[in-house]
Amino acid sequence: MSMKKTTTAALALSALALAAAAWAGYGNLQPAPAADGLSLAHDLDDEHVLAGRADSVVTATVVSRSAPVDIDGIPWIDYTVRVTDTLKGPLAKGAQAVIRQEADYGPDGTVVAYPADPFLTEGAAHIFATRYSERIDRHVFLDAVHGRVPLTPQTTATWTDAVARQRTD
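Given the sequence above, the corresponding structure tokens read:
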């Protein structure tokens, strides 16, 4: 066998071995815990699953936003929200709660929102699906994209149904 063919065969076997090892390891992956210690493994597109895993599903209006707090190199923003309706959980209508949102640092060091997870706006109404973390004494979105949605008649109907038919698979 020529040197070129031997080298090509060795590279192909190495690539195959690497791919096999990666595939074998894939099945052993565990979801990374969120910064608050809650596991976020779930079907992100299914409101019924999110409702089942949420401690609270509420409609709420954003009252205020805190300055970013750095925790282990990750900036977090706390929002105070006023609950306008409770679909699930202990947060009562009229209650205020603090919801924490993860952010990022831009190239210049400023705190920026993730593209799929824009900062909340004061006065905006949303439906929030959250888990409560005793460790940080905050509610945390179950999922940035699907765990908080603008409040509309359609999203209210969707989440009312999701809570009524919630599941945890």
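Residues 6-42 have pLDDT under 50 and may be disordered. Try to locate this feature in the token string yourself.
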